[in-house]
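Hi L.,

You mentioned the student needs an example of a multi-chain input paired with its predicted structure. This one should do, with 458 residues in total across all chains.
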Amino acid sequence: MMAPIRQAHGSDALKLVLAWGFVGIPLVWGIVQTLVNALEAFH
Amino acid sequence: MTRLIGITRPAPGDWKLTQLGWIFSLAIFILGTSAALLGRWVEEGGPRKAMFTAAWCFGDGFLVSALGVHLHQLWIIYLGYGFIGGIGLGLGYISPVSTLIKWFPDRPGMAIMGFGGAAFIAAPLSVWLMTRFSTPSHIGVGETFVVLGLIYLCFMMVGAAIVRVPAPGWAPAGYVASAQPKPLVTTQHVYVYDALRTPQFWLIWWILCLNVTAGIGVLSQASAMSQEMFGGRITAVAASGLVGLFSLFNMGGRFAWSSISDYIGRKNTYFLFFALGTLLYALVPYAGSVGSVGLFVLCYAIIFSMYGGGFATVPAYLRDMFGTRYVGAIHGLLLTAWSMAGIFGPVLVNYIRQYNITHGVARAQAYNVTMYVMAALLIIGFICNVFVRFVHERFHMRAVHADVKVEGAPVFGRQ
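Structure written out for the whole complex:
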């Protein structure tokens, strides 16, 4: 009974990482680019 | 944007900025119209079909626009990005709304916050792509459209493939619906077209329209405005960075304000938007007159957080008024307010600025009157919000109709 539950949890964690990576990586890249350009206004 | 990649002077046959501005206005107009017309289909057919259609429309809109650039035919770009892409925008915007509100009944305000984030991914990505594709003879807009269209198609298809509607009655672990009725939060449902007969719908329509008109007007001109108000101190690159920074606050505001609205209520949140917004819009000319870039950025950062917050909080406001059953479709109808604001806002800002410059006002002060007009619009929004009351029970659906299952929609989760 326990094995399927552990597998389900592992699978869920992988899905979570994939889903957040899919959204998060472009998002972080965009935020960094934005902040670098915005700092120009204060120089 | 072309200045950022080194193009500083127009060439014969270039389209005018005013002609290009209509591409954005048309896309926003079609967004609201398609959301209004197709909202019920999205609600009853489920989000997967809608997201699939949205992905094809939005992706194809870019590809058709690339053809328009290649053939140098502006009407093809109006058709591509404005019309076909606008339908994709509308469907893609409303299809996650009711799904997320059903998955997170304990945090309905937090459900909508992703839309504002796209600007600060798309803006630097577009500049980077145009730099890669530009040659001495052209600036690479067509190729950029093709790549962006394919990227959007792929990302949106993944969303369409994994979206699920929770089973009826689903609730997060440990969530217990409050037994005590909250003020201005209904436990009933209102049918999509009955909502149109309520004063609440139209009051919220004006609330959204006025909040967005003020925000979208200055957002569309934020780059030019910052450069003209602080002549010589803010370069084109810095201005584009500021626009990106404001987009960051736009997205952050969606998260922060909608979360706050879960605690203080939607009506109080909008009271805050309108009161604080009026003060901040009135402060912008002062920031320009004393040459304070910091105060200017602070005012706009908060204004754009509330602009995004207004979008993010409105589905939860509708859910509180009309229940969850048709909230996606009602939200679709409400987005016609965005359509109107997409035209009112930029037109107001552009025409008042042009009028001032024609009458000898210095460019640095050309936006002052606009800011006071925007502040006045927010006062009207405040008054509309005062009149929002509970929806009368004669508009509520009977239980047998309210529990009808969404046909053909994939369901997931526990009862």
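You could point out the following to them. The CA atoms of residues 27 and 33 of chain A lie 10 Å apart. Residues 1-7 of chain A have pLDDT under 50 and may be disordered.

Best wishes,
N.
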